[in-house]
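Whiteboard transcription, Tuesday session. T.W. wrote the structure tokens on the left side:
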């Protein structure tokens, strides 16, 4: 089995869980690393520390994942508090479409920031899934070999 999840702020707890129950996990601190690569994400933040990253998923669920949980729909004065230090929005575009591009532009406009698009596609995600599946197979085969089972 594979845990298709980045660390996403668990500070190593997801890795500890994966090790404890024998799961392979996608490498990276978060989905941004999986889509763009850790080196590309580091460059984005080195070039501009005030970068707000978007994925296709985050764009599609922006209201549900960002606006409502942060109370921005009820407390408009919080927009500036939360986003004052950002300088740009970078969309890590997995499957670019007119609809998603328009939605990304609207989010950037709400934040009062310029939008940049970095086309990542899903190739890196697919490679990471394949790597994780290979690692999972090796774990299972190692367990089977140690018990004499196949």
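and on the right, the sequence the group agreed on:
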């Amino acid at each position: 089995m594979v845990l298709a999840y980045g660390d996403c702020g668990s500070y190593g707890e997801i890795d500890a869980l994966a090790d404890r129950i024998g799961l392979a996990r996608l490498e990276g601190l978060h989905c941004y690393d999986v889509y763009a690569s850790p080196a590309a994400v580091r460059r984005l933040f080195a070039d501009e520390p005030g970068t707000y990253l978007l994925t296709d998923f985050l764009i599609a669920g922006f209201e549900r994942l960002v606006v409502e949980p942060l109370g921005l729909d009820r407390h408009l004065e919080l927009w500036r508090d939360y986003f004052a230090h950002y300088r740009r929005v970078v969309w890590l575009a997995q499957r670019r479409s007119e609809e998603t591009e328009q939605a990304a532009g609207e989010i950037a406009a709400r934040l009062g920031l310029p939008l940049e698009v970095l086309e990542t596609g899903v190739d890196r995600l697919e490679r990471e899934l394949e790597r994780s599946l290979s690692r999972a197979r090796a774990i299972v085969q190692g367990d089977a070999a140690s018990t004499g089972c196949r």
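Someone added at the bottom: The mean pLDDT is 85.
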